[in-house]
Amino acid sequence: xxxxxxxxxxxxxxxxxxxxxxxxxxxxxxxxxxxxxxxxxxxxxxxxxxxxxxxxxxxxxxxxxxxxxxxxxxxxxxxxxxxxxxxxxxxxxxxxxxxxxxxxxxxxxxxxxxxxxxxxxxxxxxxxxxxxxxxxxxxxxxxxxxxxxxxxxxxxxxxxxxxxxxxxxxxxxxxxxxxxxxxxxxxxxxxxxxxxxxxxxxxxxxxxxxxxxxxxxxxxxxxxxxxxxxxxxxxxxxxxxxxxxxxxxxxxxxxxxxxxxxxxxxxxxxxxxxxxxxxxxxx
Length: 283
Known about the structure:
- The protein contains 11 helices and 2 strands; from the N terminus they run E-E-H-H-H-H-H-H-H-H-H-H-H.
- The protein has helices spanning 27-35, 45-63, 73-78, 84-88, 94-97, 105-126, 128-157, 171-184, 194-217, 229-243, 254-282, and strands spanning 5-6, 12-13.
- Helices cover 63% and strands 1% of the residues.
- It has a two-stranded antiparallel ribbon.
- It is mostly helical and 283 residues long.
- A hairpin with a 5-residue loop joins strand 1 and strand 2 (12-13).
- The chain is globular, with a radius of gyration of 19 Å.
- It has a single domain (24-282), classed as Rhomboid-like fold (Up-down Bundle), CATH 1.20.1540.10.
């Protein structure tokens, strides 16, 4: 097994396994995954597409004279960042678009590095379309939890500043992918030695734990940046929840597994819509 990797901030990311279970892949996708290097977008098209969209949005912002290191609040909102006040006034699309907007070069670089590592590991377990769906659903869930926190505080303290908190970045969705991987890698029926699955799962658990601790530490230590911990927690918990109904179908054949995915993701979308409606009623 390859050694666990770490980025420049000391954040543990999971190793890449060259031979992953193929229940979620079509035969042609299985061949691509095995034939192409992990650096080749054809090996994990869903992951690379998500990365491409994130990078394209960042390049678009910079090309339009947005500061590449410290974009202004106005610029972030202009390109789709999340703000409770705007969402509550009919701009619900921001819950999704905010997952593709980043607050500077270091922000997007760190998130894309984690997304790549988790995506390369996780996409063969769920398939490219499901990877995209998981990213969007858990990213939205993270932003909804963050929004619920701010709206609740506004309702209690009548302080409008809670509705002006700007959120952006893929980290909620990245935590969502980590959450679903922790659940799916606990399936003993996968065609790999249990010890190896445990090592992979342990790597993802360490990634999530270390990043959550880093985020929570900013609540007591002023490091000059604001980390949306509720977006991280919301993404992580929703990712784990998505994984639970998928486990029984992971090794029951591709058609049954993909059918279970569609039902699970549709149900998750309905739940998120209901949660959004409930939050709107709180304001």
